[in-house]
Amino acid sequence: QVQLVESGGGLVQAGGSLRLSCVASGNIVSIGTMGWYRQVPGKQRELVARITSGGDTDYADSAKGRFTSSRDNAMHTLYLQMNSLKPEDTAVYYCNARNVVAPYGFGDYWGQGTQVTVSS
Fold first, then answer.
1. Sequential DSSP letters for 53-90
2. Residue 89 to residue 63: CA distance in whole angstroms
3. 117 touches 87 (CB < 8 A)
4. How many CB atoms lie within 10 A of CB 41?
5. Which residues of 81-114 are buried (b: 16+ CB within 10 A; e: fewer)?
6. Cβ–Cβ under 8 Å, residues 26 and 2
7. Are 12 and 93 in contact (CB under 8 A)?
8. Measuring CA to CA, which residue among 36, 43, 33, 11 is closest to residue 119?
9. Given the DSSP bridges, would you call strands 46-51 and 57-59 parallel, antiparallel or unpaired?
10. Is 17 exposed, middle or buried (CB count within 10 Å of its CB: 0-12, 13-18, 19+)?
């Protein structure tokens, strides 16, 4: 069974930085696009950044210039470097993996989320 486990969230002051990681496990053969999404209570989950297996990236306007997504395909790991954090970045951040190929199946998966809190 494929599992995505996020880490790196926490409490940081405005202007600070955090680096999120997401490790995918489960005898994975390959993963397509991986992405970071975030959600605050009462709102829909929104895309923050995504990166294809070839390294092409796409960012939400709110993340451009401050966040950088990268991945290690060999280690099935996704990263999000977040700089110049703002209180409005406070949310639960979720990792998503699409088109995951494994011996037992194929599908899309989500992590359990990691809380990011930015204080003013």
1. TT--EEE-TTTTTTEEEEEETTTTEEEEEE-S--GGG-
2. 9
3. no
4. 6
5. ebeebeeebbbbbbbbbeebebeeeeeebebebb
6. yes
7. no
8. 11
9. antiparallel
10. exposed
Tokens describing residue 11: 């409490």
Quick one: tokens of 55? 């390294």
Per-residue pLDDT of the chain (120 residues; tens, 9 = 90+): 899 999 999 999 999 999 999 999 999 999 999 999 999 999 999 999 999 999 999 999 999 999 999 999 999 999 999 999 999 999 999 999 999 999 888 899 999 999 999 999
The token pair that represents 71 in the structure block: 């991945």
pLDDT at 104: 83
> What is the dihedral sign for C-alpha 110, 52, 50, 60?
negative
How far apart CA 1 and CA 28 sit, in angstroms, is 9
